[in-house]
UniProtKB/TrEMBL annotation:
Protein name: MD-2-related lipid-recognition domain-containing protein
Originating species: Amphimedon queenslandica (Sponge)
Record keywords: Lipid transport, Signal, Transport
Top-level division of the source organism's lineage: Eukaryota
Gene Ontology terms for molecular function: sterol binding
Entry-linked SUPFAM superfamilies: E set domains
């Protein structure tokens, strides 16, 4: 369940599209999984998200979710950063509020620290637990460098079918 929650919010680092789309800061994007992603990062943040693809179209318990993120890293990211994750269910109940080591967090997407500047692609898949309650989920993910500067920020809303 923990890996799945990380995947949902990491897919937070996202937008469904057939080709990369440049996200506008603070703009909501509705995609065909009935998810809304908002890029809440600052223009000075080193990670620029170009696109996020999530499939299948209908997210269902007990079925896999596939997440692909494409972006550009303006500067290298060293060891020692953190990722702050908040995930709420039914717009009220916090089911996750935790800080993770940045390098451990990105290992789930087959990446490792340090990250070099340049193009970055992250792919992840995980089965949605059968025990995950159907309904609406909202969350945020904010990554910070080893010196506390923001790397990127994304918020998400999505619905899991029964």
């Amino acid at each position: 369940m923990m890996i799945f929650l990380l995947a949902l919010v990491a897919a937070a680092s996202s937008l469904i599209s057939a080709s990369p789309v440049y996200l506008e800061k603070g703009k909501n994007y509705l995609n065909n999984t009935n998810s809304i992603w908002t890029d809440c990062s600052k223009s000075s943040d080193p990670l620029v998200i170009y696109s996020i693809n999530v499939s299948p179209v209908t997210l269902q318990r007990g079925q896999p979710i596939y997440i692909s993120v494409v972006g550009y890293l303006k500067e290298p990211i060293n060891d020692g950063g953190t990722v702050s994750v908040v995930l709420r269910y039914a717009n009220a109940m916090n089911i996750l509020r935790k800080k993770y080591d940045f390098c451990t967090f990105i290992e789930a997407a087959q990446l490792s620290c340090p990250l070099e500047d340049g193009s970055i692609s992250m792919n992840y898949s995980e089965e949605i637990p059968s025990s995950a309650p159907p309904g609406q989920y909202k969350g945020s993910i904010v990554a910070y460098s080893d010196n506390g500067d923001e790397i990127t920020c994304v918020t998400i809303q999505l619905t899991i079918s029964a």
